[in-house]
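discrete fold record:
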Amino acid sequence: MKKKLKTKRVVLSIVCLILGFMIAYSYRLTESGKSSRQITDSQWEKNLSLRNELNEQREKNRDLQEELNKRQEMVRDFETQLANEAQVYFNLAEDAEKYRMFLGKVKVKGAGVKVTLADGEYNPDEPNINNYLVHEHHVYKVINELYISGASAIAINGQRLSHNSYILCDGPVITVDGYQHPAPFEITAIGEPKVLSAALNITGGIKDQLVNDQIIFSLQEQSDITLDPVVGKK
């Protein structure tokens, strides 16, 4: 009887031990699940917060990108405006240089032609010596034809002409803006040599007219001509 009672106690102890172990294990699982859920919730809230911040940052970046695009467009507009203004100023400077050249205020260099007009040979049978001398109207014909043909600058015996130059004839000499020059008269002009030569040599043109007036006419194309400013002007 005692032996059976002792056996029952042993069995009951084992059962209680197992039951206690199971209860402890179950408690640990429960606590672990709670802790796991708490960490997960915390991480979820943190992720949500980070996601919201990221969305806000993206929105800010989008706004900044739009602002940057507007600024860049403004810069391009300014650059275009400056380029247009620079072209305008360049054109004005170019025009001013042309006007200074036309007015004879600057030294100019370039290709062109040299026309020489000399008095005709003495003819004892010709009672009027003026019939074979170079006169101002002969010089004017050459100058006008050169300007019409595109000459940008002209000089007579090295004296530069301007827009208001005048030429007077005084016997065997001509007066250009108050300065006298004896024959022969060298008329140098800067421009396209072929064009200027063709204009003067045209049949029935200036050359033929001067030769008919017994003027000795010669023409040379030159690749390098330098004309100084108008006398007394800079």
Observations:
- The chain has a mean pLDDT of 80.
